[in-house]
Amino acid sequence: MLEAALSHLIMQEFNYLQRPPASTLLILLVSALISLVTALANRKVMNLEEYRRLTIQSHEVRRELMEAMRSGSQRRIAKAQKQQQEMMKAQQKMMMDRMKITLFFIIPFILIWQALVNFFKGVVAYMPFDAPFIGRELTVTHWYIICSISTNIIISRILGLTFEVEPAS
User: Fold this and answer.
1) 3-state secondary structure of 133
2) Is the CB of residue 46 less than 8 Å from the CB of residue 161?
3) Cα dihedral 127, 130, 135, 137 in deg (nearest 10)
4) Is residue 7 part of a domain?
């Protein structure tokens, strides 16, 4: 009973946050904060230099395999495939480290997600066009997914967790 009364009072005080544009911005902010915390944790756990080295090497091995396949040399193909298998093992270890961070954050994320879904009802954002499968009016689920992908890409780039591999000249 007390919990319901407190919940009702809180809802009355913050009900303006449940409608656009406040809901749109609040969900964007929550998404950005979650992306930032997980990216900082990944940065702390990962060896970024090793990650970059492996990514560049993997790119080179794929390029070598493609060239070997074009040349038709079975010896070059076998050598490139062996290198590729070794690279995949090293990358798999790196991905497991990143997965540990994800597992660490999964319970807090579920709790935050549940709070968002319970707090926001109905439309939380509007699209300027009809998006396929979504439409113009976005629910918390649709808007959070869009925000999460967008903020994660930006924050990962800023923190150096993703980068472009320069083509070999």
Assistant:
1) coil
2) yes
3) 30
4) no
CB 117 within 8 A of CB 103: no
Give the predicted TM-score (pTM) of the model.
Answer: 0.73
Domain with 109 in it: 17-158
Q: Kindly give the residue spans of alpha helices, DSSP state H, lying in 14-73.
A: 22-45, 48-71
Domain membership flag for residue 72: yes
Residues 18 and 5: their CA atoms lie apart, in Å, by 19
Is 165 a member of any domain? Answer: no
- As a whole number of angstroms, the distance between CA 112 and CA 107 comes to 9
pLDDT tens for the chain, 169 residues long, are 666 766 666 666 777 777 788 889 999 999 999 999 999 988 888 888 888 888 888 888 888 888 888 888 788 888 888 888 888 888 888 888 778 888 888 988 899 889 888 888 888 899 888 888 888 899 999 999 999 999 999 999 998 887 776 665 5
Whether 8 is covered by a domain: the verdict is no
Radius of gyration of the chain (CA): 23
Domain count, the chain: 1
